[in-house]
Amino acid sequence: MRITRTFPCSVDRRQSAALFRDIGRLIDYASPGGDIAATTADGLDTAAWKDLPPWVRRMSVARRGADIRLELALDPAAPTTGSEQVAGKLGRALEDWFSQAVRPFPRKVFCIGWQKTGTTSLTAALRRLGLLSWHFAPWLIGCRHFHSDPVAAVPDFDSLADYAAVSDLPAAAFYRELDRAFPGSLFVFTDRPLDSWLASVQAHLQTSLAVDGQPHSVDRWAYGQDRPDAAVLRERYLRHRGEVFDYFAGRRDFLALDLGQGNPWHPLCRFLGLPEPSIPFPHHNRGGNPAGTL
C-alpha cells in the first residue's frame, strides 16, 4: 500500500541537493538508533524514523524533473485517515522547503534570536520573501543525534554556505563568529517578553523529556545542564540578549524584532530592502507546543 504526493519544485538542483542533505541530517538527529536517512542520487530515503507512525514502512522523497515526489510505503492495515494526515503534514513541510520561489539575495541573513522567540516564524517569512532558508542546524556543533554531545571545537560554518538565511540554535549563539565568517551579513534578533519565553521554553524542554526520555543535545549544550531550572533559563536568555545588543550597538546591519508586536512585515522588509507581501505574516508554534522534526 502506498501514498504518493507531488509538489512543484522552485529551487535549482544545487539547492535541492542541499535541502535533501539537511533534511536527512534532521531525520538522523531525531533518530537515536543511528543514521537512518540515506541520500540518493535525486533525493532521500528512510525507514524506522521515530517521527513516523509504526505503520509507515518507508518514506522516500525525490526530485522528478520540475517536481518533488513524496512516497510512503504503508502496512496493509494502516489507518486511512491517519495515513492522509501524515502525508499532509509531510507534504506541507516539503512545500515550504521546495515550492516557494527563490530570489538571488546579495547578503546572508542570520536570525540570532534565542530558541522559542519566533525563529520558526521568521524562517517561514524569509522563505516567503524568496530567501532559501534553513532552521535549526545541530550538525554545526557536531551533534548528529539528539542524545549525542557536541564534538566540534570549531563550528562547521561551511555547512551553512548553501543558504541565504539561517536561524535558531546553535547558529544564533555564534553571531560574532558568523559576523567574521560572512562579512556584510544582516542580523535579525527575534525578541520576546521574558515570562512568555520562559513558559514556552519550559514546555519545549518538558516535551523532550516526556517523548525522548532525555533533553536534546542542543538544549543541553545551550544551558549547560540536563534539567535547567527557571533561574538558569532566565539567566541564559538575558545574557544572550544583553551580549547581542552590546555587540551590535549602533550598527545598521542589525534588527531587533518582536513578532508579537504590530505587523512584522513592515520592519523586516524595510530592513531587507524587499517589497512587502500582501499575505499575513506566518506565525508558527504559538503556545509553546514544539513541532515535530518536519
UniProtKB/TrEMBL annotation:
InterPro entries: P-loop_NTPase, Sulfotransfer_4. It holds the Pfam family Sulfotransfer_4. It comes from the Bacteria. This is Sulfotransferase family protein.
